[in-house]
Write a structure and sequence with these properties.
The complex is a heterodimer of chains A (about 375) and B (about 375). By secondary structure, chain A is α/β, with parallel strands linked by helices. Chain A is about 40% helix and about 15% strand. Helices cover about 40% and strands about 20% of the residues of chain B. In chain B, helix 7 packs antiparallel against helix 8. The chains are: A alpha/beta (about 375), B alpha/beta (about 375). Chains A and B meet through helix 9 of A and helix 7 of B.
Amino acid sequence: MIYLDNAATTRPDGDAFLRAAQFCNENFYNPSARYSGGFAVHTKLDGARESILRWIADPAAFDLVFTAGGTEADNQAVFSGARRGNAVTTAGEHSAVERSFTELKNRGVEPRFAPLHADGSVDAEKLLSLVDEKTSFVSVVHVNNETGAVNDIFAIAKAVKQKNPRAVFHSDGVQAFGKLPVRLTQEIDLYSVSAHKIGGLKGTGALFKRRQLALPPLIFGGGQENTLRSGTENVLGILDFSYAAERQFSALAENYARVKGLRAMFWEKLDKSLFTLLSPQDGSPYILTVSAEGARGEVLQRMLFDAGVAVGTGSACSSKNRFSRILRACGHSESVLDGVLRVSFSRETAEEEVSAAAELFNGIAKKYKSRV
Amino acid sequence: MEKVIILRYAEIHLKGKNRGYFERMLSMNLEKSLKGLRHELHRTSGRWLVEKFEEGREGEIAGRVSKVFGVHSYSVGLLTGSELDEIYAAAKLVAPQSGSFKVETHRGYKKYPLTSPEISAAIGGRLLAGNPNLKVDVHAPDSVVYIDVREHGSALVFGEFGAGAGGMPVGSAGKGLLMISGGIDSPVAGYMMAKRGLTVELLHFHSYPYTNDGAKEKVVTLSKLLSPYTQVTRLTTVSVTRIQEEIHAKCANELNVTLLRRFMFRIAERLARERGYQCLITGESLGQVASQTMEGMTSSNAVVTLPVLRPLVGFDKDEIIERAKAIGTYETSILPYEDCCTVFLPEFPATKPKLSFVEEEEGKLDVEKLVCEAMQTAETIAF
């Protein structure tokens, strides 16, 4: 199987998993236990925390709260940060942020959504115009998970803070973490990441938090994670996350350049009479979204999987939610939305795989169009 | 004293010399429905008793047997000795805590020293004396305590009647093949034919990769939801992808569905003959969609000789939905998986296709080859 659905999840890093599993097998103690065995696990967790922190932030200025995934980190950010007035986000957010914003309405906070450019990036000017003195929270996705468009969250955060220094700024960094060079600045209050998008395990994520920022918890209980996220820590997932991140970050720049080449090559090889490009040229190299206009993306996706390539899609054959909310917000027509396929790469993707996949894309789209 | 469940037949009592056959069928189906639960099933004068089950599981057992066709009603009751004191002890447990009541006695054992009204009076009087919140009302009581004095010194005491599924025992009326789409109607159609005693097996058509595995999974779920009633054990799936593609490529667009249905009927009949089913069953309802018009049904019937049963033909959608909800298939049926991808659906399907035009268009296809190819894709899932 040629696996090109890495924005959905990645193949777990085997070495990272073995290292983490071995530790957990020998050190199963509860990290909160007050005997030395428990303390050793606690120390190990803090080591993992610091190691992950260092990759994109200054550990003196930021904390890291482990969560049960990117969705929880986003929920924590939104519900802890947006407590009054209004909250501003983009029309290009992952459902974890988008649905949370919709829920804010029921909690007395007015959600505001800024429109997107055709490539999926937010219209920053319009976003800023939605921010006022009553804005308590702003959330802007770093890399759009459906088009790969990159938002300049640092510039946006700075502008937001100039307009309203009290607004908490959050960014969903799930598709950027370990893929794009990132250094969190003081304007970024919160930043969510997920382990399984970089070779870690599903069910593990984290929220970067600026140290000075005081947040109420989302989950109450035994007071773990500095009272911000109660529940016995997922030691296996967290250690595995730190080892996977180690591997991912140690070659970030080389991978970035290589994957950028693969992405360009893939697009180069696609038959332009069959496919149109929806991703921006300067987007994340890890995501390439195209549309086989007039075809059904979901059907192509199954045909491709049966032919040996796994890719993502932006459409569903079902009548409910047939089209991607985000791509619709980019302003595409229904026939374009119907035919969406998302190709997403990883550091493991090989050149031969990319060219073989492009051939299959052309062949299958042609076959589909001849039959339907 | 022991908790038992009393089951009464539905229509079987109308049957004369065949009664034994129907009773054996029902008995077999009851046993099937109680598989995995410790119990004993005994037939006594015109009804069944489920005995010797684990304490506290009477609700589960009643739930299962109430779905077996042929059961008219059931009661959870107490089996006790026929001495008045024993009957009273049971009646006290069955009787309501307050309100009006009466006692009704049936005396199957005619040598019992008291007559039925005497037993009712004796037990009723004691119940009344023992609970000041009760009063007797023989005309319109809130509740009734039933006493059934049987031979061999035993008696049954019970209160409420629960409704059974009614109908005839599944298997007593032959075998049929239900074409199940995943929508709301076909499970109800299967339910209704099983209710009349037909053994129903299922056939589902899919058009993978135009439809997804979710659609198939949904039909499997529906089959499992139906099985307490129909006791279905097998579902066969057949791919009609090639057929849809061929029709789409070669025939008049407005006939896509009409032609596809003719293929489905042919495949269904072939499978039915191979496996000894005597009829086809569909969930069609006259005029519900373009293909379910008189002309549409005529066009489908023209390619088969087995009888096609359409138990919902005179039902409104609302009536079908109501039944689907009652059987418990509705929530699954409305899950958003398409049984037939809309890519092949014409914008304006023919509502009154002329048979001659349909046959002419179909003449452009190698029907036999396509049917044979489709038959090759048949997969049977046993539950």
